[in-house]
Write a structure and sequence with these properties.
This protein is of the alpha+beta class and 525 residues long. Among the domains are: 262 residues, no CATH class; 85 residues, Pdz3 Domain, CATH 2.30.42. It is built from 13 helices and 17 strands. The strands form five sheets. Strands 10, 11, 12, 13, 14 and 15 form a six-stranded antiparallel β-sheet that branches. It is elongated and about 95 Å long.
């Protein structure tokens, strides 16, 4: 975002990216007045190299991409401001202590220590800044409405341009996986869960499931419908593997949620490391309650057969329905045996295959097709990104969604364990970096880059100070009032100070909250 040449002590103005505000910036001193800038720059580069050597070069790449996005955002403001005849006095990446800078003409360029954003300072961004009369004609406020709108929206426009270029590269150069709106049959096996029917039958990542017991499989919903009635029954599966039809056969498992939760009455907590599975809750009056299970019990074995995971427990209970079993648990550090008859409630139990779906890679498109798909995908992503800024979608963050999950890449409980509810949440730069570093392909990394740019571009257009959209709203209001009254009008920025600080406080709270979640509650569910 843009910022101004001289910041009044009582007024925050806009900031770089969507992360901070230059209201916390002091007016810079002469960069050549006793500043060991070259030494600082060398130390900064050394720190980056150390980060790559000690942590990961992918982390360095993620930081570099963040710097690129911040730079391009501010470059948009800078170029349009200069082209509009406005005075730009600073162009910095980062906030806080200055690491290195140089001056060319009337503008100081450089790097600061805290990479929470970037900024340019444009003279006269609000009505209360004192500017020398000889420079007034070069201020933001003195320019026409079209020029002000051009400058203030240029940052988001640069994000949208980078996102569009990323989509085009993905479709035309790299190849995509149908990321935005895949056709129903554009999916393949992406993950085979260890110890499940899928692994025993020989399914492999990349397999395209063609049919199950003669029923054609096009969508993942088709797979769920075919697998559902086959709990503990034989399934004959035909897959397309590298262009060859391969026939597989084997007995499917049972959906553990149907058995353990619904029919038996236990809620389990995912184990930490090699710890046993822990009882989270026991439904009153359930079969589990008659056994004497208690919250906090650690499950170890049934009839001396180790319980490694929830599917193991589900299979053992399903097979023992109507018979007596002995369940070994650890309760408060002591081994305890629970004996009883397994009498599962009359609940439908679906089959379990044990795969996670992935999108099949599509061939690279031509230039014209790629342009069209990029535009279409941009619209889809932008529409979906708007939902993230609705706080009502964050409600799932305040409930415990860690129970009854195993690590899989899909949530359709008829075929894969681990369906979790809840909406999305804001992800900080740290979270976006973690997702980018953990990505497994160039396509995924490009798509993450696209998502982040579109999200930041949209956020910056929110009609609130100190965001770019707040300045655009003020300029539009001033233009509308001038049109009605036929007289020049400038909003009294001092009256907006309380609202501006309130927005800054909210942004800071959400930012700190998102960073904390991205560090201590990862991954988001």
């Amino acid at each position: 975002m843009t910022t101004i040449d001289e910041v009044p002590t009582n007024l925050p103005d806009s900031s770089g990216g969507a992360y901070s505000t230059p209201a916390f910036e002091d007016r810079p001193v002469d960069p050549h007045d006793g500043d060991p800038g070259l030494i600082n720059l060398v130390l900064f580069v050394a720190a980056v190299i150390a980060l790559g050597l000690l942590v990961s070069w992918w982390v360095v790449a993620a930081v570099g991409l963040l710097a690129l996005m911040l730079f391009m955002h501010e470059l948009g403001h800078y170029l349009t401001a200069r082209a509009s005849g406005m005075k730009v006095t600073e162009f910095f990446l980062g906030f806080g202590p200055r690491i290195w800078s140089f001056r060319k003409g009337e503008t100081e360029y450089g790097i600061k220590a805290i990479w929470a954003g970037a900024y340019v300072r444009i003279a006269g961004l609000n009505s209360i800044e004192d500017v020398h009369p000889s420079e007034e004609h070069r201020t933001y406020r003195a320019k026409s409405y079209p020029k002000r709108m051009w400058v203030i929206t240029a940052g988001s426009a640069m994000h949208f341009l980078m996102a569009f270029i990323g989509l085009f590269l993905m479709f035309n150069i790299v190849g995509s996986y149908g990321t935005t709106d895949p056709e129903p049959d554009d999916w393949v096996v992406d993950q085979v869960v260890a110890g499940t029917a899928a692994e025993r039958m020989g399914l492999q990542p990349g397999d395209d499931i063609v049919e199950i017991n003669g029923a054609p499989i096009a969508s993942f919903d088709d797979l769920a419908a075919a697998v559902g009635p086959l709990a503990a029954r034989t399934a004959d599966i035909v897959v397309d593997r590298n262009g060859q039809r391969v026939a597989l056969s084997g007995e499917l498992g049972v959906n553990s949620g149907d058995v353990v939760n619904d029919a038996f009455g236990l809620t389990l907590l995912s184990p930490v490391g090699s710890e046993p599975w822990q009882v989270g809750s026991v439904q009153p009056g359930s079969n589990a309650a008659t056994f004497g299970f208690a919250t906090g019990d650690l499950l170890t074995a049934i009839d001396s057969q180790p319980i490694r995971d929830r599917p193991d427990l589900a299979a053992a209970l399903f097979a023992a329905d109507g018979t007596e079993v002995q369940v070994e648990v650890e309760r408060r550090g002591e081994a305890t045996t629970l004996t009883g008859d397994v009498v599962l409630a009359d609940e439908p139990v679906r089959g379990f295959l044990g795969i996670g779906p992935g999108l099949a890679q599509a061939p690279r498109d031509g230039i014209v097709t790629s342009l069209g798909r990029s535009a279409e995908s941009f619209g889809v992503i932008a529409k979906e990104s708007l939902a993230v800024f609705n706080p009502r979608t964050w409600a799932g963050l305040f409930t415990d969604q860690s129970t009854d999950q195993v690590a899989t890449s899909a949530g359709n409980s008829a075929a894969v364990e681990g369906s979790g509810g809840g909406g999305g949440r804001p992800v900080s730069a740290i979270g976006a970096g973690r997702v980018w570093v953990d990505a497994e392909s160039a396509e995924q990394r490009i798509f993450i880059f696209v998502l982040v740019n579109i999200a930041i571009g949209i956020l910056n257009l929110a009609p609130l100070l100190p965001l770019d959209g707040g300045h655009a709203l003020i300029a539009t209001y001033e233009r509308g009032r001038e049109f009605v009254t036929r007289r020049p009008h400038r909003v009294d920025a001092e009256k907006l100070v309380p609202l501006t600080w309130a927005v800054i406080l909210v942004l800071m709270v959400v930012g700190v909250w998102s960073i904390a979640l991205d560090i201590f509650a990862w991954p988001p569910v």
